[in-house]
Amino acid sequence: MPTAETRLTLTVRRIRQLTPTIKAFELVSPDGQALPAFTPGAHLKVEVQLADGSRDERAYSLVNSQDPTSHYEIAVQLEPESRGGSAYMHGLKEGVTVRASCPRNDFPLAQDGTHHVLIAGGIGITPILSMATQLQAQGASYEMHVGARAPGLMAYRAHIESLCGQHAHLCFDGGDPSKGLQLATLMGPPAPGKHLYVCGPRGLIDAVIATAKANGWEAEQVHFELFASTAQQTGDTGFQVELTESGMTLEVPPDKTILEVMIAAGLDPLYDCNRGECGVCAVDVIDGTPEHRDYCLSEEDHESNSSMCICVSRSTTPSLSLKA
Questions:
Q1: What is the mean pLDDT of the chain?
Q2: pLDDT per residue over 182-196, tens digit each?
Q3: What are the residues whose beta carbons fall under 8 Å from the beta carbon of 110, sequence distance 6 or more?
Q4: Out of 3.40.50.2300, 3.10.20.30, 3.40.50.10260, 3.10.180.10, which CATH number does the structure's domain 239-323 have?
C-alpha cells in the first residue's frame, strides 16, 4: 500500500488560470492507472526547482475530493517574494511530468462533527473547497466563509457559488481589514459537535484562533492549516545556538531557521510539517529565551520556555542552548 513517502510520477494534463496570480494544475497518472485515494484536507508534496538551481518540495492542498483516484487538482499562487517554488510551478506546461509524494492528511474533517464552519482566505480556499464538496455531497450541515480583496481575485469563486449555494458567504474587503470577515459573528458560540476549520494567511489563522479562544471554543474544535512556512519577520535578527548533544555551536542568520542551519551543518534533526503545527521538531531549551512562533506547544510550554519548535521559533536572547 502506498504511503506518504512513496514517490509518484504525475503528468500535468491541464493548467487553468484562476486569477491573475493563481493557476490550477490537473495531475494524472502517465499510464492511466488509478491514483492513491485521499480524503478532504489532504495535501501532496511536489518536487520543484528553486531559483538557485537546487531541488526542494512544496506542499499543495488537493482541491478535488470527488473521484479522487482519477486525478489530483492543486492550485498554486505565484509568490514574488518566494525562493522560486511557485515560479517553477507557474512555468510548467501541459504534458510535462512532475514527481510528488502520495497524499497525506493532517487537516481532516472531524468524524464527530454535526456542524462544520469553514473559513478560507486567499489560496487557503484549496483544502476548504475540498471539504465543502464532500459535505455538500453528504448533505451535511455546514457553512463556508471565504474572503478576498475583490471578486476577480477569489479562486474558484463561480464554482463555490454554484456548488455551495446558500451555504457560501463570500466577503470582498477591497484591502480594508475592517471590511473583511467578521470572525466573532460568523463562528458564533461553541456547541457540542460544532467544528471550526480555517486555512489561509497566518494573520487570518492567528485571528481565528484568538477569537475562538476568547469565545470559549475548545482547542479540539478548532482546526487549521498554514498554507506556507513562517517567513522572516520585520525585526528578525541573527543569534547563536549551542547544541549540547551534537557538540556544535551554529550561527542562525535572520533569514534562516534553526532547523535549516542544522541541516546545512550536516545534522539530521527530526521534523515534519516545517510550519510549527506538528511538534515533531520540538527540543528542550537549556538556556536562553525562545521567541515562540509555533501552534502546537501549550501556553504552559511557552511560558516556561522549557521547549521550542526549531522549524519556526527564534530567540529573544543573543544565544540559545538546546538539547539537540
A1: 93
A2: 999 999 999 999 999
A3: 116, 195, 221, 223
A4: 3.10.20.30
